[in-house]
Amino acid sequence: MTNVCWCGAKQLAAGRETTRGIRRAFLSRIARLSTQFNRLCRQGFAILYSSLILVVRPCILVGMLAGRNRPRRSRVTARDAERTRGRLLQAAFQEIHRSGFRSADLDAILARAGVTKGALYYHFDNKEALGYAVVDEVIASNLHQKWVQPLRNAKDPIDVLVRIIKSESLKREDVQRGCPLLNLSQEMSGLDEGFRTRTASVYRDWRVAMAEALREGQKRRVVRSDINPNETATFLIAAWEGYVVLGKNSQDPRTLQSGQRRVSGHLESLRPARGRARAAGRG
């Protein structure tokens, strides 16, 4: 009986030892598998990371090259857009000067500028916006170059004004078309506030430049001290523009030629007595 019990206990202990061995082997296997799995994951991440580097680096280089070239293309595009806008403004100015704003034909403007209707509406919302830009950027600029700029720092403003008046074109087609500023002011001031304020601003700049030049001439004693520069400038512009519109109405260059003589004569009367004598001697 005692032997039987001892043998049973021994077998039970052996079974427990076997179970522990199996458990240790199982856990060891799991640990090895886990280690291998982690290694594979790290290798896979490294491979993936390397692949990404291979893809990302060329992309960065391509992006850098594209970024380096992009501003140059943008500058070219900006210059092209500016030139297109300039052609539209010049074409619109010529068409408006010939036909007036309300009768100006957009198709004729596009044909003259050599651009599409899409280009027109890319730069200007509508016909009115185009007309406003013509006043602000073309008519105002032309008047500034012809009248305002020569009067700046002029030693003798009367000489400058007489020279400008006498340089006015007497070609029949120019006389027939008249003054672009005057034409638009007469046509649109009573119909559109935008045109009225813009043309008034150009006239104001013209009048101010002339008055300042006369005032400086008084300081140099080449302009009579008893005249009012502001009133005189207003009168001179009104007188000259009056002859321009009379010439346009008569379609006769001789009308404008008469205006040149009369306005120039009035300008000569603005000199001090001593200055008039010197001017007569030069004549």
Outline of the structure:
This protein is mainly alpha-helical.
Task: For this entry, give a set of tags.
about 280 residues; mainly alpha; Arc Repressor Mutant, subunit A; Tetracycline Repressor, domain 2
Overview of the molecule:
With 283 residues, the chain is an all-alpha fold. The chain has 2 domains: 38-124, Homeodomain-like (Arc Repressor Mutant, subunit A, Orthogonal Bundle); 127-282, Orthogonal Bundle (Tetracycline Repressor, domain 2), CATH 1.10.357. Helix content is 84%, strand content 0%. It contains 11 helices and no strands. Helix 4 (127-151) packs parallel to helix 8 and helix 8 packs across helix 9 (229-250). It is elongated, with a radius of gyration of 45 Å. The relative contact order is 0.06. Residues 1-10 and 44-74 have low confidence and may be disordered.
How would you sum up the major sheet? none
CATH architecture of the largest domain: Orthogonal Bundle
Number of helices: 11
CATH fold topology of the largest domain: Tetracycline Repressor, domain 2
Assembly state? single chain
What is the secondary structure topology, with strand pairs?
Blueprint: H1 2-99, H2 106-113, H3 117-123, H4 127-151, H5 157-166, H6 172-177, H7 180-188, H8 193-219, H9 229-250, H10 253-268, H11 273-282
Helix pairs in contact: 1-2, 1-4, 4-5, 4-8, 5-10, 7-8, 8-9, 9-10
